[in-house]
Amino acid sequence: MSESGALKLQQEPIDLGGLVRDVAGSFFGDAAARQVTLKVDAPDDLPAIDIDPVRIREVITNLLSNALRHTPEGGSVVVRVASHPIGALSVEVRDSGSGMTPEAIARAFDRFYKGSGSRGSGLGLTIARNLVAAHGGEIHASSEPGRGTTIAFTLPREP
């Protein structure tokens, strides 16, 4: 889809913090049922950003779904939205789950790559990377086995 250049973004000024709070809200029930704490840290005074809200909602949904899937009972998932002086906004999804090896992190965004214990298709992070890149942004993963994983993406405020 985006690799062929066929991805058309429907960009509009969006409150990214509000979008993240809305997406996270759809996960609170699942998190509570699994006894995982889900917290959103998004300031109310973030500047609007021109993005395709449907596509970025898909990215956030994917990251939250992965984080909750890999976080054990009693663990936590924190979503943080921040503004950067470089004219960008970032979203960070940090979990206290099983973590990933350096080898798994290196391949996390590869198409069809699935880490040990993954039940997904191996496409979610690839799609997320492509959608973030289509917005001119970047996405990164950091992790340590047994200490959880953080996936963060940054979007420029100006297209």
CATH architecture: 2-Layer Sandwich
CATH superfamily: Histidine kinase-like ATPase, C-terminal domain
Instruction: Report strand %.
Output: 25-35%
Biggest beta sheet summary: 5 strands, mixed
Brief summary of the model shown:
It contains 5 helices and 7 strands. The chain has 159 residues and is α+β, with helices and mostly antiparallel strands.
What does this molecule look like?
This protein is an alpha+beta fold and 159 residues long. It has one domain (12-156): Heat Shock Protein 90 (2-Layer Sandwich), CATH 3.30.565.10. 31% of the residues lie in helices and 26% in strands. It contains five helices and seven strands. The strands form two sheets. A five-stranded mixed beta sheet has the order 2-4-5-7-6. A two-stranded antiparallel ribbon has the order 1-3. Strand 6 (138-143) and strand 7 (149-156) form a beta hairpin. Helix 1 (16-25) packs across helix 3 (53-69). It starts with 11 loop residues before the first strand and ends with a strand. The mean pLDDT is 88.
Topology record:
Elements: E1 12-14, H1 16-25, H2 28-33, E2 37-41, E3 49-51, H3 53-69, E4 76-84, E5 88-95, H4 102-107, H5 124-134, E6 138-143, E7 149-156
Parallel strand pairs: 2-4
Antiparallel strand pairs: 1-3, 4-5, 5-7, 6-7
Structural key phrases:
single chain, 159 residues, alpha+beta, Heat Shock Protein 90, five-stranded mixed sheet, two-stranded antiparallel ribbon, 5 helices, 7 strands, globular
